[in-house]
Amino acid sequence: MGLVFNIQRFSVHDGSGIRTVVFLKGCPLDCLWCHNPEGKSLEPQLMFNPEQCIGCGECAVCPAGAHTVADGVHTFAREKCVRCGKCAAACPTGALKMAGQEMSAGEVMEQVLRDRPFYERSGGGMTLSGGDPCFQHAFSAELLRLAHENRIDTAMETSGFMSPEVLARLAADTDTFLWDFKLYDPELHKKYTGVPLEPILANLAALNEMGKAVILRCPLIPGVNAVPEHVLAAAALSHTYPCIREIHFLPYHRLGIPKEKRLGIAGRYDTEEKPDTASLLALCGEHAACPVQLK
Ligand code: SF4
Ligand code: SF4
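Above: inputs. Below: predicted complex with iron/sulfur cluster.
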């Protein structure tokens, strides 16, 4: 069994072709700008969106008395919640939702296999994401194995922060890694993500030895890493490790902020500033002749 918080069909941004992306709960990192905050915890979480609430009172089924509605005004006492999910099941508008559902690997695969004809026509497949699939590595390994058993291409989005043993186990059935490179400087990496950079780079070197295909993914966060040093460090990595076929620079977006509010988390990072991605990419003046695709 694993804890899944979303299964997204017809994705075209998470590997080749048309893909089904399975989002797994739990992440070893704590990035300041996280855009999937509902994926961080390895427990189910209740999300509440007051904008969708119509004050119907159905959520009064809560055994902990966390919801009260008086004169059509709903009040939620999150500190009483024990995450049983009963209110979310009763809420008619989707104002209450559980992030995280226990599923077996077979149940997930049943959904993934529904789109097999699309994978076959487009060169797509299944992508594991999160959170970080390495956190529930036994479940991830089983999903990847089942996908290969069914002749489905596999990809995994990961921070790369895992033991060499876990990496070897996951790599056995992963065709492409979408590998995060969040910060070029080890001290800044620790400061903004909570974990050291060195094991991630050692794992990248190991993937190169294994001959695995890697797409390097670099978020560009204004005020943190939307700087020439980060772009040039990513380019340098691609010259060191031929396994890196593409580098994707991902401009910061604000999609995580409303989700943090729905989880009851105070927003930790926000800016309306957009990184100047075109100027940063132009720094790597040789990319017209470079075998690595920059996006
Ligand atoms: S998840 Fe369960 S305990 Fe939490 S508010 Fe809803 S019904 Fe109450
Ligand atoms: S059940 Fe949903 S819509 Fe109704 S009061 Fe509770 S949160 Fe609001």
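The chain has a mean pLDDT of 92.
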